[in-house]
Amino acid sequence: MGFWNNLFGGKTKNEKTYLNKLSWITWDIHNHLLPGIDDGSPDVEQSLELIKGLKDLGIHKSVSTPHVMYGVHNNTPETIQSAHESLKSALANNNLDFELKYSAEYMIDDQLDSIIENDQLCLMPNKYVLIEMSYLSESKGLFIIIKNLLERGFQPILAHPERYNYYHNNFKIFEEIKNAGCMLQLNLLSISKYYGEHVKTAALTLIRAGMYDFVGTDMHHTRHLDALKGVVTKYDVRELLRDCPIKNASMFEAAQEKKIA
After folding, report:
1. pLDDT grade, residue 84 (50/70/90)?
2. DSSP-assigned states of every residue in 116-127
3. What are phi and psi of 196, to 5 degrees?
């Protein structure tokens, strides 16, 4: 009980006790590091600053997941690849050793069906696909999208389920989403009060039930980075998630084995 009680209290230390606290994750599979293509990093300089922060935390591998959201962030495989190449060049020019892959975070909207049908998805290795819903209202097409992705051999991952306020009084829906074949990804900042007390409570409830498959930083800017350093200093995140089958470190192993073979 002492460990769980500490989640709602305690003081954050000032020294750099955040160093390498997230090395066990290996891959950050959800972030907005690519410069200038969504509401994340505005330029290469800030992208490099965020990457240095991830390295301090012990994360040296990342899948960038810029938003694909009709009418707001109209990204395509081409725009994402272009931003990725720009950032990779900057990493090389600055002698930063950081493994960078790219994919996307797909809003379940009127455009997503067409993207899937026209084979325009930016997939993670091993055909993982990160999907999200609006924070304002439930996407009625969630289960249809999950089914469509699975039928095409893709593995959907629902981003930050704890942040969908309309599900906070309906825990059963998370079981239904998992039973439909969709995995769940926790935003690490959700275990603090960064997004609010209700989000924190939902996250801890899902953690206790062992529901999460992945974790991600969902890093957009330096405020997220600073908050994340505080969270990992205050909480033993790995111990907190001990009952969840977190797959970040192993999710790409099969793809790497195929490449070696």
Report:
1. very high
2. HHTT---PPGGG
3. 115, 160
Global pTM value: 0.92
> Can you tell me the mean pLDDT for 5-32?
80
User: Average model confidence (pLDDT) for the chain?
Assistant: 93
Query: Which residue's entry shows tokens 């002492």?
Result: 2
Exposure pattern of 127-166 as b/e (b: 16+ CB <10 Å)? Answer: ebbbbbbeeeeebebbeebbebbeeeebbbbbbbbbbbee
| CATH classification number, 25-260, choose in 3.40.1440.60, 3.20.20.140, 3.40.50.300, 3.40.50.20 | 3.20.20.140
Largest CA distance in the chain: 52
pLDDT > 60? residue 256: no
Domain borders along the chain are 25-260
The model's pLDDT over 39-60, given as tens digits with 9 standing for 90+, comes to 999 999 999 999 999 999 999 9
CA nearest neighbour of 84 among 51, 59, 120, 132: 51
Q: Which two tokens stand for residue 137?
A: 């209202």
